[in-house]
Design goal:
13 strands; 332 residues; 13-stranded mixed sheet; 9 helices; alpha/beta
Length: 332
């Protein structure tokens, strides 16, 4: 793994203040205070929503726990000893001494457990402790829906910076450390996720902060449903030459990243598993091969991510809100 990939996970980006989001009456996210100890179980909630990097955590907190920054979320280290032995010198969890940070919020009357994971498929041991973490979190939260969300590399020329894809399917494309696993190329099909009429609010809710994506994007982000997310075990991206075979491996994928397929893998061993989905934003669009050699293309993608990753995540956080708001309507 290159150093800049670790930077994607570890960096704490600076950003301008978020413009207010005009939530519909009664559906604005409302953070719930917590004094949980690090070894306490996660709170019960109808939705478990998990993100991965610092930029993603900061954006998710600004949208979902307004007034409570991600740095104030509670550490989660329940059963820490069994995870600590599966970490490497590249594991963010080793320095954090916890597997995740968490908070609780409400959308309408729906409780949402928010988690920023410190475990990652590509930084921890080949035992993939993130799979165990998923199972532990689902058992404690007891959700009716589980969502993995955050940034990703965009696939396809039509995909612009900030576009959001809510998909029910995930496919592994592991060719490095996990190539020997029986699931290295497995595709998992989910039952589908939907936002119903709340999806129509995405455009207006994302618009106040969309100018932050200029000049890379020449329009506001779009929200699409259906298709796949592709999970790789090394840094790969879609370029116009498909150098890494990302498109060939899964023509149905809209984005590629490094964690999402671990969710359905974990749920495949859970009885009465809840439905799940992936909501990812294109934090760096398809790389033009004309930028230069692979090193130059990698720098191009990294620089875009570093500058815009927080702002693209605002869109996927709003997309998560739309799915949860629809679930809230169906539960009540």
């Amino acid at each position: 793994m290159t150093d800049w990939v670790l930077d994607r996970i570890l960096m704490v980006p600076e950003h301008e203040e978020l413009e207010p989001i005009a939530w519909p009456d009664g559906l604005a996210p409302r953070p719930v205070s917590s004094s949980a100890a690090s070894d306490d179980p996660l709170p019960a909630a109808q939705v478990l929503l998990v993100t991965w990097t610092y930029a993603e955590g900061m954006a998710l907190a600004d949208v979902m726990t307004p007034g409570v920054e991600s740095s104030s979320w509670q550490p989660y280290a329940r059963n820490w000893a069994k995870y600590a032995s599966q970490l490497t010198d590249r594991s963010p969890a080793r320095d954090a001494r916890c597997m995740a940070y968490h908070a609780l919020t409400q959308i309408g009357s729906t409780d949402v457990a928010l988690v920023k994971s410190e475990l990652h498929l590509t930084t921890d041991a080949v035992s993939a402790p993130i799979v165990q973490l998923w199972q532990q979190m689902v058992a404690e939260v007891g959700p009716k829906l589980v969502i993995s969300t955050g940034t990703a590399g965009g696939i396809g020329a039509p995909t612009q910076l900030g576009d959001v894809f809510a998909v029910p399917n995930a496919k592994f494309n592991c060719t490095k450390a996990f190539a020997h696993k029986p699931w290295a190329q497995e595709r998992f099909a989910g039952s589908g996720i939907s936002a119903g009429p709340h999806a129509e609010l995405f455009a207006s809710l994302v618009a106040p902060n969309a100018p932050q994506l200029r000049p890379i994007a020449d329009r506001n982000p779009l929200l699409s449903f259906g298709g796949d997310v592709e999970t790789v075990d090394y840094f790969a991206f879609a370029n116009t030459d498909d150098t890494f075979g990302v498109v060939r491996n899964d023509p149905l994928a809209h984005t590629e990243e490094m964690d999402d397929a671990t969710l359905p893998l974990a749920l495949s061993d859970v009885s009465d598993a809840p439905p799940w989905g992936s909501i990812r934003n294109a934090s760096d669009p398809q790389v033009p091969s004309s930028v230069g050699n692979i090193e130059a293309q990698t720098r191009w993608a990294a620089e875009i991510y570093n500058k815009y990753g927080y702002w693209t995540t605002i869109g996927s956080a709003i997309a998560c809100w739309s799915v949860i708001a629809d679930l809230n309507s169906n539960l009540n």
